[in-house]
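Run folding on both entries below.
>entry_1
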Amino acid sequence: MVVNIPEPKVHPSGNVFVKYSADGGSFAYYPSGRMACAYERMGAGYYCFIYADNAKGSTLLAFDPAGCGYCSFLNGKPRLTSQKTGGTLCEESGSIIRSWSTMKPLKAGSPVDIDLSANVRVTFQSRQLIHVKLSVAGLVEEYDLGEVPKMANSSYMGKVVRQIKDGPERGKYILDIDKCRQAAQENRERREAMAMKEIEVAKTNFDEEFMQKHKDLRPIVTSTSDLQASVGRGEWSVDVFVSKSEMARTLSDSFPTLSMGDSLKGNPHVNTLASLPATKPDVLDALLKKSSIDGRALPLSSAIKGASGRYRPEHGAHYSLPRKRLLELKGKDFDDHIKDQPPTTLVVVCCLAGYVPACRRLEPVLEMLNGELEKQAGGGEGGGDGAPPAPSAAAALPNMCLRKVEMSESRFLRDRFNINTLPMFLMYYGGKLAYASSTLNGYGTSKDDLLAQARETLQAAQRGSFLPEGFKFGLSDDNNTSDFKGTLSATTSVLKP
């Protein structure tokens, strides 16, 4: 399936305003180049983060796919909170202006409208209905956040008439039978709409009158006639059918061939090698060809099992992918390992955690790049072992090495640098810290962004540009949660139904 990604929106200055992703997410930027919004897909919903246009990049809004999150003032104090039990609207002093709960939600006609900044306006009706409008330099981008309403309203609790208070069945709910029937009918209609309709049996005999009515069928009938004529002229190869003994001898039962494959059970016409189509004789030639590497016949791939006519390239049994596991550093050996690396090599330490989805997606990319770096360092030319050739001088990778730290196992890097965002990248040159950030090349985390940032950092470090001794990140916006823990605790009694 081809995914059409919308073209980016651009500021009048030429800088990117909104850059869209293939999964429906997007990233928005202020004219200054600072990030304005990160709208990232996760499962069936989206995470949304809105940032202020200041040097700190203060977080103004953060919501998850369930509609839980907060809006804050520029100083980090909470302005609006949303939880599954309810929410609050607060003044900057901490006083509660409005509150709501699952049993006493906001009225349909009176949502919460707040301006987080001159560029961001939020309309909050419920966890399922959150609308954000981002206006920058005459350009507008709108986001609909929160839990999908259909998912939230599909519970049987929405069909409850009352709850039995007394008797042996107390605690049970009495449901509205009309609502249950309506929901069942909607489910049947939904299943029917998603089900595959039966395909009518196509006609096999077409006369001239029928083709006059359906002119699009004429080229199909013509091609069928040409095919039958080619068979009559003997243009098809029948070597497949006359070489059964050679195939059985060469491709023995020790190979996963078409012979009695599990995927072919139930069809007596395709249980043997003799059923291989004769339309492509080169497939048979490739199957019977001896390998120049190990002298054995090429085993059939899964594609051949499906009778697609493909076969595995002749790369030998010892072929391996260029993906290499990252060397994991431990706290006690971290500093010694950094100092032991060659002084001209840039050491990139990737701070990851297995429980963070972004880290799990990034690690395979880093392992592929690590394999390319090892291949380049070994000076391989590729070819006989099936590995890709070494890159040309123009496309050579920077002089760097990749290392990994599992942040869930130790707090030493978190405490040393005050790390609150993952993944995080630390780059060392000559044992000194030259770069530290959770983003690469300005705003990305892709492989190309990592290589671009590594080249830039390497050049800066060679000129003597390093981060100061005792470098630490400032207070992160992730600490907003701790700033309003007191407010959340004070509202617990209000939020309880």
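>entry_2
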Amino acid sequence: MFKWSIESMKAIFNSRTIDASHTVLKVTNRAFCYGDGLFETIVTGPERINLIERHLDRVRSGAEALGMDFPDALSLENIDEWTNELVRENNVTGNYRIRIHLWRDAGGLYTPEKESSSFLLELAENRSPLVLGNLKIGLNEEYMNIYSPISRYKSKNALKYIMLGKIRAERGLDDIILVDYKRHVSESYSSNLFWMTGEQVFTPSLKTGCVGGVMRSYVLDYFATQENPVKEVLTSVEDLKTCESIFTTNGAGIRWFSNYEGRILKSPEALLEPLVRQLQQP
């Protein structure tokens, strides 16, 4: 189980190394006041392939969609250097989790007065396995997704997912699925969703308002080279009643489910095994 801890930890704030326990954000911070910002969570290390470039491309694209300047300092070369520094400073061993926060600088109310931005980079040990299975997943139709030009990005406004996390915990589930306002299957509260019927793998279209996950794009690219590419679909939640397998992906890895709303599902491990090998460092 992974937990963030800031005691005696180092972080990078606008290219400077700081103690993570120090206060660096003002009460006028727009991420705090309005959720005006983005974040990326990246898991990598000696046992995981490096997808930092894909994450960096997504946060850069997200900044452009928000009309926010992207800091020149957030380059792949600098992130690699800061990562190595924080691994040493924080005495991290094994795989690790990097979190990049990016927000618009203070000024204005709903309408910002400037487009410049600031960033924070954190790093801590990660103990989550790449693959975890035999889990339980359920459905919630109360909190819905709505498509917009920015719905694919990971914004600082996560209240919907927080409420779904509470519901998931109350129901004793490992994950929970949400839909869009037309009852199309969209995503889970923390991950992108995939399911299998026969030999075909499906995933919700970004038009459902789901996050355009980095691992999702990697899985799509992988299956594009296989006999049956993944189909991105707008499909009713009713279709999940007849699917045979369900799995999810996010930065932490792949999770598969043996139980959906009380219905027993098949394991997709055989299908995913070559993908998992590709995600692991040689």
